[in-house]
Design goal:
The structure holds two protein chains of two kinds. By secondary structure, chain A is of the alpha+beta class. Chain A is built from twelve helices and 15 strands. In chain A, the strands form three sheets. In chain A, strands 1, 3, 4, 7, 8, 9, 10, 11, 12, 14 and 15 form an eleven-stranded mixed sheet that branches. Chain A has a two-stranded antiparallel ribbon with strand order 2-13. Chain A has a two-stranded antiparallel sheet with strand order 5-6. Chain A starts with a helix and ends with a helix. By secondary structure, chain B is α/β, with parallel strands linked by helices. In chain B, the strands form two sheets. Chain B has a five-stranded parallel sheet with strand order 6-7-8-3-9, with helices on both faces. A four-stranded antiparallel sheet of chain B has the order 2-1-4-5, covered by helices on one side. In chain B, α5 packs across α6. Chain B is globular. In chain B, a hairpin with a 2-residue loop joins β4 and β5. The interface between A and B is medium-sized, with 27 and 33 residues.
Chain lengths: 455, 251
Amino acid sequence: MSLWKIAWRSLRQRALASTLTGLSMALGVALVVTVLVIHGVVERQFSGDAQGYHLIVGASGGKLQLVLNTVYHLSQPIENVPYSLYEEFATGRFAEWTTVAVPYCLGDSYRVAGRSFRVVGTTPDMFDKLIYGRDEQGDKRYQFAEGRNFHKDAFFEAVIGSVVARQSGLKVGDPFNPTHGIDDKSEGHEHDAFTVVGILEPTGTANDRALFVNLEGFYLLDGHAKVAPEDDEHGDGDAHGDAEVHEGSHDHDAHDHNEAEGHRYIEPLPRAQCEVTAILLLLGSDLYVENIRRVVNEEHMYQTVAPVREVTILLDTLVAPIQLILLVLTVMIVVVASISILVGIYNSMSERSRDIAVMRALGASRSAVMAVILMESVLLALCGGVAGILLGHGLVGLANPLVVARTGIELSVTQFDLQELVLIPGLIILASVVGILPAMTAYRTDVAKSLSASP
Amino acid sequence: MTGAIRRRHAAGTALPLVLAYMLYFTPMLQLRDVKKSFVQPDGEPLPVLNVARFDVAVGEQVVVRGPSGGGKTTLLHVVAGISTADSGTVLVDEVDITRLPESGRDLFRARNIGYVFQTFNLLAAFTALENVMLGMTFTGRNREPDWAEHLLERVGLSDRLHYRPAALSVGQQQRVAVARALANRPRLLLADEPTANIDPGHQQQVIDLIRQTCEEQSVALVLVTHSDEVAAQFERAEQLEAFNQISVVAP
């Protein structure tokens, strides 16, 4: 019978007290684990989502806002920039630095089952030429779970993210009608239908929560055209974006289109009337980032933003301190829980003085009985700790659907953070420290007196 | 052999006398001038032990009688090395345990001395078998589960191996305690009023068990009691006051 077994048995002898003490430790550790896992996931997620390209070009305004609504489908879009700026990257004077330029138009949403998903007008390059992340295996490219990418000349084709597909039930071939505006509450005008031609594999990024439609079709929707400076054929005087919603008076001929009629030729909107919310840029080299930034910032009323840098700043200035405070608080809870271990064991010492004396009479040394008490403390902390780690991951699992629904970020139950490994030696040290007081009581037990005393 | 001794005795030499004495009395326990006092609350020392000489031979069974509070338990504690004498020597199997450090006395006790208390010998968290195994834990030697089972069988508890103390009668608990005291094959067993809390009908069983098992395994026994009935069964019965020369007896 080892000393560990003796320690374990005496814990079991006081099963209720031990369980309660262990439980308080488990709750403390669970909270630490939850904070660690969520922080780890959020950090990886946020920095991962922004890795597919170098720069975002958009209208002047909040940098973070531009990143949030372009990369994460959060917050409100800022002003738009003219289509000609996109052309400068795609074919114009910045083309030699630019590997891929992808236009990005926001302002519509698709509402289904009480949820609202953003609709993005873009080009097929978004999925053909951009990656959504990078890991040890290299670039992570967009894959289609079903269907294919939309065609550049099929104006009313769309590709949807995995979360959208799961929650809306849309399948390849289904039509859907985007709604004007991105505000969840506003009763926007329902646009004409796009047809789903592809469903993306889950990427674990915010793009899982978005629908991507052909930019050309997007432009032809009500209220998406800028007032044409000369030719007023398509626009009729309203400003783009969240301005007033058109009623039936609008000319629908140009985009009266559905899948059944096949690919009837539709006139694209004249480029002068087109705007984009942002341009995603993948450059030929990291070195070009500064060139483009300098030129764009100086010459225009536009800004370039490196999403990775913005996200890093966001994480460092806002998320990290909050995380630290949470971590300190939760670690304090663990310390309080370990003090309850101390109290629990210490209170049991008076009724155990005879047991200790009996062991001493059987030849146990002072240090052996001291070790038994320390082991009890360590066992209690470890059992509580392991239970807490499992409980913490359970909590993360329970929170997952909610987090996915709100943010599109997938929290994995089996996502073990490396920092959790520090918990185990940390708990052993903590338990040894709090175990010293009762262990010293055991060490000092007066055997002759305790044997004579009636229990 | 006795014939040979007699013959040599007849020859009148001193040496055979010594040899004969050594054969008759191989010491297991020797106390010499052992003194111990406790400090009273008022700071005055209270003498409890003053034993000029107390010897027990190998395999010998001795009962020590005396009034309660007369120092019987303290005598056993000093012999076991649980308490230390203020002066004098305590030789157990020719080892002077008063000269050992505390950890040395602990290990010596674990390996050589069995101890049965009045009652509540057992740890409630462990089964009968585990309590016996517990006795083997602190020797620094390999534990012998078979021997533990054998001992429990010997004390008549082969069907109670996995019972917790709470599920055993006081008499059964004392039998487990006897088995545990013998677990490390000690050469000396100390029993402190082992039947005090057992109902009279079962006291004799426990006394018989202790005496028989000690005899079987050549274990010397020092049993203290205040019962005349128990004391009457021993060939050698000592009255504590007879060899414990203290002027004041604790109340």
